[in-house]
UniProtKB/TrEMBL annotation:
Organism: Capsicum baccatum (Peruvian pepper)
Entry-linked Pfam families: 2OG-FeII_Oxy (PF03171)
Domain named Isopenicillin N synthase-like Fe(2+) 2OG dioxygenase: residues: 35-127
Name under which the protein is recorded: Isopenicillin N synthase-like Fe(2+) 2OG dioxygenase domain-containing protein
Length: 173
């Protein structure tokens, strides 16, 4: 797997840097959902530290946990492509972004300090190259779960995922 990651992801993957911003002055009510419960379809998702809390993850045991990324650190989550390569041994991380009581507390502090109320986060979605074949690699190919992850080109897999959530687009439009 190391060779595939080194070559395909680093040099050939259709990576996406996706900064997002949310105006908490307007959308800072507790319970406001910015990104509902989901997994990412890519290889790895690298979350930078956000200016306001709100990102929660689910652990393998089903426990929900609000993330606290220390200054100077990143949160790296597994996406569906790494799940495919490991026959489910490394599962895609479920997560969401919602305004919580910690977010509203941070809003109050920012107002007192006359700081911006924009929740800004920068996320990098690292992908396997579109023409690389996703399939369980190495000893993962011997897993009893390997048959749930049949060989498929990464680009085709991404298209299927996007179609499943109605984001594929219409080439005729």
């Amino acid at each position: 797997m190391r060779d595939l990651v080194k070559i395909s992801v680093r040099k050939l993957g259709p990576h996406l840097l996706a900064p997002t911003g949310s105006d908490l002055r307007r959308y800072g009510k507790e319970g406001t959902v910015f990104a509902g419960y989901h997994y990412d379809l890519n290889f790895l998702t690298i979350h930078g530290r956000s200016r306001f809390p709100g990102l929660s993850i689910w652990l393998r045991n089903g426990l929900k946990m609000e993330v606290k990324v220390p200054v100077g650190c990143l949160l790296i989550q597994a996406g569906k492509q790494i799940e495919w390569l490991t026959a489910g041994e490394c599962m895609a991380g479920m997560h969401e972004v919602v305004v919580t009581n910690r977010t509203t507390d941070a809003i109050k502090r920012a107002l007192e300090q006359k700081c911006s109320l924009w929740r800004v986060s920068s996320t990098l979605f690292a992908h396997i190259a579109s023409d690389a074949v996703l399939k369980p690699l190495g000893h993962f190919s011997e897993s009893p779960l390997a048959s749930k992850y049949p060989p498929i080109c990464a680009g085709e897999y991404v298209e299927q995922e996007l179609a499943d959530i109605n984001l594929k687009g219409n080439k005729g439009a």
